[in-house]
Design a protein that fits this description.
This protein has about 230 residues and is mostly beta strands. It has a single domain, classed as Jelly Rolls (Sandwich). Helix content is about 15%, strand content about 45%. α2 packs across α3. The longest helix has 12 residues. The chain is globular and about 40 Å long. It starts with a helix and ends with a strand.
């Protein structure tokens, strides 16, 4: 009897096992030529296109001017932050310096993995594609991006529209015209960055991340994106 009581107590004391929740953004039902619905464009020109018969997301920086936010911005901000949308809306309007989209169905990402594929097509100034994360209601965020012209992987922090580099990794080529996989792993304050399956970056942040996620790019970049997947724990 006593043994049974101890067994029951041990079972009660067992911690809950973390559940891995995975979400992949699917563009297969989207309309070619239209803005995406699964990813909400906040800044820049984002549309659905096809690549070898597969629907993918395209950003065209040649059709965008710095400072130009997306259409119907108030509705988009409300879709992300509900009644708290006003602060985010004001930030996007004031600091529309870098094109980005936000994953509609991914809420507060704190820990796990974010993976995406990108193909740079063109861009005289930049050919950049990256993962946006830790997006706050005030518009501040982090972004880890690769650049086909610069052959580097950089972790950026953007606060009130001002971008500052957190960490640079050089000699990481991602040639134009080819698909490349970018992956970010977050464990508490520790980050790992991967390119095409190879770990190339490690960094420890000042504080844990908590916020929305999406895709980030820069300037006149023309890139395709696919396979945006978030796997987190809860």
């Amino acid at each position: 009897m006593l043994r049974s009581l101890f067994a029951c107590a041990a079972l009660v004391a067992l911690p809950a096992v973390a559940q891995v929740v995975s979400k992949t953004v699917d563009f297969s039902s989207e309309t070619v030529g239209a803005e995406p619905k699964a990813m909400i464009p906040m800044v820049g020109n984002w549309t659905i296109t096809q690549d070898n018969g597969r629907k993918v997301l395209k950003v065209d920086g040649t059709k965008w001017q710095e400072g130009q936010s997306g259409a119907n911005l108030a509705d988009k901000a409300r879709a992300i932050y509900g009644e708290r949308y006003a602060e985010f809306l004001d930030s996007v309007k004031a600091f529309a310096y870098f094109p980005y989209v936000v994953a509609k169905e991914v809420g507060d990402f704190r820990e796990g993995e974010i993976t995406m594929r990108f193909k740079a097509l063109a861009g005289r100034v930049d050919q950049a594609g990256g993962i946006l994360f830790d997006l706050k209601a005030n518009g501040d965020y982090l972004a880890m991006r690769a650049n086909a012209l610069e052959n580097n992987l950089v972790l950026w922090r953007v606060v009130k529209g001002k971008r500052s580099s957190v960490k640079w990794i050089r000699n990481t080529p991602t040639p134009s015209g080819q698909w490349h996989e970018v992956k970010l792993i977050v464990r508490g304050r520790n980050l790992e960055g991967y390119l095409n399956g190879k770990r190339v970056m490690e960094h420890t942040l000042d504080q844990p991340v908590s916020g929305r996620v999406g895709i980030w790019t820069k300037a006149d970049s023309v890139c395709l994106f696919d396979g945006f997947t978030v796997a987190g724990t809860r």
